[in-house]
Each structure stands twice: as structure tokens, then as C-alpha cells.
Design goal:
By secondary structure, the chain is mostly helical. It contains 7 helices and 2 strands. The chain is globular, with a radius of gyration of 20 Å. The two termini are 14 Å apart.
Length: 161
């Protein structure tokens, strides 16, 4: 899939003559793109955009972050993960400590529990969720061995590429 991404990126410039560039207001451009796609964006898309605004220093562009916050809270009003992201990305990272503290106070007052990390995979018709630090599954050691071997395989493939 990564190779496909590189190929498409290359084709945009070499085949279609479009020179890629970073737009001035990346967060706003990404927000406009997401709101105009033909499918309804899910919370994962909105969280990714919120995080991208932080990574790409778009904290000075208020519009997309406010809209993303609204969308996340509409879709998942009781998700502590969304609230923690909002507190950290929109407020704490830019020195708005009181606002960050207020959001975290809401989490505590409402009694929401923070889930550190969740990963999901789809196997056939079912979705399996894995929680960070959860060693309660009978074969958790086997999972770690499998992940280590996959990680080694990925490193080898990248080295050979």
C-alpha cells in the first residue's frame, strides 16, 4: 500500500503535471476536503485531522479545529479519548492551560474513564479490539511474539527495498 502511495504521488507530478505543494492553511484545506468527500466521515477521520493540525503547526488556524471538536462531540459525546485529545491538542499545546484543565475536569466530573490506546482489526465478520496494557487474554504472550516477528519482517523488507 505504501508503494502505491509513492506511485500515485509520483504520477501526480510526472504524468499529470501537477506539482505537489503544501497549502498555506493545511488544516482548513484538509477540513474542506473531508467535508466534501461523498461518504460521511467517522470519528477516526476527525481525530486524525485534529492531530494533523497539531503536527503540522496549524494551531493558529482556528476554524478547522473548532469544527472538528464540534463534530467529534456530536458523534461521540462520551468518548474520553476525544476530550483528552481536545484538551491536549487544542488547548495545552498552545498554552491554554485553564481551558485544558476545564476539559479534563469535565472528564472527571462526568465519570468518564480514559482508555489509553485501542487498536482494531477486522477478521471475517468480526472486529477484534486490543487495548494497551491489557494482558487479560489467555494467549497474550503469543500475540507479543507474533508482533515481534512481524516487526522484524517489516524491518527486513524495508532494508531490502
Amino acid at each position: 500500500m505504501v508503494n502505491d502511495g509513492y506511485r500515485y504521488f509520483h504520477e501526480v507530478e510526472c504524468v499529470h503535471g501537477i506539482k505537489p505543494m503544501m497549502p498555506f492553511k493545511r488544516g482548513l484545506s484538509a477540513y474542506n476536503f473531508i467535508t466534501n468527500i461523498p461518504i460521511k466521515p467517522d470519528p477516526i477521520v476527525w481525530r486524525t485531522l485534529l492531530s494533523a493540525c497539531s503536527i503540522h503547526d496549524a494551531n493558529d488556524v482556528k476554524e478547522p479545529q473548532d469544527e472538528v471538536r464540534k463534530r467529534l462531540l456530536e458523534l461521540e459525546p462520551k468518548s474520553s479519548g476525544n476530550l483528552v485529545s481536545i484538551a491536549n491538542i487544542m488547548y495545552a499545546e498552545v498554552g491554554k492551560w485553564n481551558k485544558a484543565a476545564n476539559v479534563k475536569r469535565v472528564i472527571k466530573d462526568v465519570g468518564l474513564k480514559k482508555i489509553v490506546e485501542v487498536s482494531s482489526i477486522e477478521l471475517g465478520e468480526s472486529i477484534r479490539r486490543f487495548y494497551s496494557g491489557d494482558d487479560s487474554h489467555v494467549d497474550h504472550e503469543g500475540r507479543y511474539v507474533l508482533l515481534e516477528s512481524l516487526n522484524l519482517h517489516i524491518k527486513m523488507v524495508n532494508f531490502l527495498s
